[in-house]
Structure formats: C-alpha cells, structure tokens
C-alpha cells in the first residue's frame, strides 16, 4: 500500500484521500470538536451559535473546516462519526 499526504496534510491517507485514522476527531481543534458534538445533538447552525455565543458565520466556518479535514460533505456523516466515536470510547 502506498501512502501519500492528503489535502489535510495528514500522512496516513490513501492517494484517493480516504483517511485511515483510528481517531479522526483528533484532527480537529477543541472548538471544532465542540461544534461537531452539537451537530450530533441535532442543533442547527443558529442553535450552535447561540450555545457557543458566536455568530452563525463562525459556525459555518468551523463546519467547512471540519468537513475539509475529515473529507465529509454532510452533517449526517459528521453526526454519525461523532456518535460512533463516542460509542467506541464507552465500549
């Protein structure tokens, strides 16, 4: 298997961009993990903004960064990843 650096500059990615990470949420900043957790709880951008006392645009920026780092495109994918990660940590 040949590994190359992906667009998020993480060395353990296939050339196709599929990350081989055991804990992908570790790629995120603390604030991005907070946003991801709130997405998993089902909050809207406005709800997340209110919870974190930031603007909706700031939430959008965090989500763009999260999606880019994790190679995701939908909130549902992010929510499933967060729930799966939490489930692994509990088991």
Strand content: under 5%
End-to-end span in angstroms? Answer: 30 Å
Structural class: mainly alpha
Coarse morphology? globular
Q: Biggest β-sheet: count, sense, barrel?
A: 2 strands, antiparallel
Binned, the helix content reads 40-55%
Low-confidence stretches: 1-6, 10-21
- DSSP, total strands: 2
How would you spell out the order of helices and strands? EEHHHH
Sequence of strands across the biggest β-sheet: 1-2
Cα Rg = 14 Å
Query: What's the helix count?
Result: 4
User: If you average the pLDDT, what whole number results?
Assistant: 82
Itemize the secondary structure elements and their pairings.
Layout: E1 3-4, E2 13-14, H1 30-40, H2 45-52, H3 56-70, H4 75-90
Antiparallel strand pairs: 1-2
Helix pairs in contact: 1-3, 1-4, 2-3
Structure description:
With 91 residues, the chain is mostly helical. The chain has 4 helices and 2 strands. It has helices spanning 30-40, 45-52, 56-70, 75-90, and strands at residues 3-4, 13-14. A two-stranded antiparallel ribbon has the order 1-2. Strand 1 and strand 2 form a beta hairpin. The model is unreliable at 1-6 and 10-21 (pLDDT under 50).
Task: Please name the defining characteristics of this protein.
disordered N terminus, mainly alpha, 91 residues, 4 helices, two-stranded antiparallel sheet, single chain, 2 strands, 4% strand
Describe the structure concisely:
This protein has 91 residues and is mainly alpha-helical. The chain has helices at residues 30-40, 45-52, 56-70, 75-90; strands spanning 3-4, 13-14.
């Amino acid at each position: 298997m040949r590994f190359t650096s992906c667009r998020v500059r993480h060395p353990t990615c296939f050339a196709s961009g599929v990350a081989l990470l055991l804990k992908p949420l570790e790629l995120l900043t603390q604030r991005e993990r907070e946003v991801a957790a709130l997405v998993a709880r089902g909050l809207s951008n406005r709800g997340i903004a209110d919870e974190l006392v930031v603007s909706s645009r700031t939430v959008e920026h965090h989500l763009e960064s999260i999606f880019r780092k994790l190679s995701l495109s939908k909130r549902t994918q992010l929510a499933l990843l967060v729930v799966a990660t939490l489930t692994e940590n509990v088991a």
